[in-house]
Specification:
Layout: H1 3-44, H2 56-63, H3 67-79, E1 83-86, E2 90-93, E3 98-101, H4 108-111, E4 118-129, H5 132-138, E5 145-155, E6 158-168, H6 169-172, H7 185-193, E7 197-208, H8 211-217, E8 224-234, E9 239-248, E10 252-255
Parallel strand pairs: 3-10
Antiparallel strand pairs: 1-2, 4-5, 5-6, 6-9, 7-8, 8-9
């Protein structure tokens, strides 16, 4: 057989083997992601109260996975900063994400009251001309002054979110002398207007942290953050609070209760 034919014959025999290996790797990676999702849920809901995950062999038996798949899943969780491997101890939980509900209109301190103290560092506050999109959503004349507030919000001393807030000035002026460091804006708005907040329109998406946000949140530049855009209305329907909130994605998880409606 000529050398070129032998090369083609050898390549033909090897191709299915290479394809099969790639398929096996892909399937193992898929199973590892599935297992990581299950373990992440356990981590976030207190499924490992002792702070240590079971041995890899135990996890493999419990989830009917190979040990390699378990190791790959733990590597994914380690890359997220949720667990770490300690010699002589095993895989331990090293980070906690805090639950933020999406089915009830509450301020951050109200939402996380069971998890510690929320404090606010007011970085910027004062009247500023409303950009056109802000003016339209708050129903104020284009270019009219609104109260602009930038706050770094911490939970138990750790940076959690960077909040940019726009409020109509006829309401916002009263906030200038308010205790924004220790009080949610929602509570203050209800006290100032004498009305309850009614509803909010929200949008949630993942964005990369810009240089400013990363520095303030003490997160790596370009790290993924959860961006919550929220327009809150009083009970009479008036929009009073437009917020752009950047949450550290490694410290918060969003959840809600949804009902099917056709």
């Amino acid at each position: 057989m000529p050398p070129t034919d032998r090369i083609r014959d050898h390549a033909g025999q090897g191709a299915p083997t290479v394809a099969a290996q790639r398929t096996r790797r892909r399937l193992r990676a898929d199973r590892a992601r599935q297992l990581a999702d299950l373990l992440r849920h356990q981590l976030l809901t207190g499924g490992f109260p002792a702070g240590t995950l079971p041995h890899e062999l135990t996890l493999a038996a419990d989830y009917r996975a190979s040990r390699n798949t378990v190791r790959q899943a733990l590597d994914l969780l380690r890359a997220e900063g949720l667990v770490d491997r300690l010699p002589g101890v095993g895989t331990v939980v090293v980070a906690q994400k805090y639950p933020h509900g999406l089915d009830c209109l509450m301020g951050l301190a109200e939402t996380l009251r069971e998890h510690g103290q929320v404090t606010n560092e007011v970085r910027t506050m004062g009247p500023a001309p409303a950009p056109t999109p802000v003016a339209e959503r708050l129903r104020v004349p284009p270019g009219a002054d609104v109260l602009y507030i930038e706050r770094l919000r911490r939970l138990n001393g750790l940076p959690l979110s960077l909040d940019l807030t726009y409020i109509p000035l006829d309401i916002g002026t009263a906030l200038l002398d308010a205790d924004l460091e220790n009080t949610d804006v929602f509570r203050l708005l209800e006290a100032i207007t004498g009305r309850r907040l009614g509803h909010a329109e929200i949008t949630l998406e993942a964005v990369n942290a810009d240089a400013h946000s990363a520095t303030v949140l003490e997160a790596p530049r370009g790290a993924a953050v959860l961006m919550l855009e929220r327009l809150t209305h009083l009970s009479d329907g008036r929009p009073v609070d437009l917020e752009f909130i950047r949450f550290r994605g490694d410290r918060i998880t969003m959840s809600g209760l949804l009902h099917r409606s056709l």
